[in-house]
Structure formats: C-alpha cells, structure tokens
Amino acid sequence: MTDSVYPWPYYADLQQRSRKLSRISDYWWGMESALAYLLAAIAAGTVPANPEDLVVTLNRTIASGARLHRSRAAALAELAPLAEPAPSGDGAAEARVELARIVRLVSSRDEQLLVDVGLGHTDREIADRRGSTSGAVRVRLSRLRLRLAA
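Above: the chain's sequence. Below: its structure in token form.
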C-alpha cells in the first residue's frame, strides 16, 4: 500500500488513545515513542506496507518505549537517595574551581555531552539529540572520564 493517506488514521488513533490517558505513565511514554516512530517512518517512507505489520511494529514500539522509561525511572529512584547534600560554602567554591578546570580541558561539544549526562539523559537519548550512535556516545564519555581523571 503506497497510499500517502494510509498511515495517518493509525497516527490519529495513537493520538486519541494517548489523549484518553488520565496521567503520564510508562504506557504514555510508550505511546509517545510510537507517535515519534510513525512520524519518522512517514517522513522516511519506511512505513510497513502491510497494515498488520504496522500494528505489530507500533505495539512493539509502545512496549519498548514504556520499558525504557520504566527502567530509567527505576534507576533514578534507586540513585536519588544516594545524592549528597548540598555543598557548604567551602564545598561550593571547590566545586566551582573543579568545574572551571573541566571546562578548560574539554571542547564545547564535549561540554554539551557532559551537561546532557548530568541532566540524566541516556546514551540513546543523547545520541538521538546529537545525531550520533549510542556506542559513539559511550566511547566519547569513556575517553572524557579518563582525560578528566588524569
């Protein structure tokens, strides 16, 4: 089916199902993933020709998006209690000195990468934002850690 109207009813259905949810949940994030997938597939012209294949792909995307959000949320919930208290006046000054040292050692591109990591984005999210692969992001982070530890 090469009809350009074909995938849009599926997109409308996903939007309607998403709108009916009363709160943001893992499933909601999965729905958002499916909407994003469908838009990207339409733009790239890679929508499965068989409607049954499209439904299977959308359901898999919903499940995957929900699972990724659930995993990230669980990791953040587990790590949140380990956060240290706000630094005292002396600690804040030391932190500013250390941040200035880091800024001098890294490029602006690497600095943006470190900020994304600090904000809690996954390597996959960073790769999507930076037009890279998650493996390349992990390699860059590993090299940055080695350079900053020295």
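Residues 32 and 142 are 31 Å apart (CA to CA).
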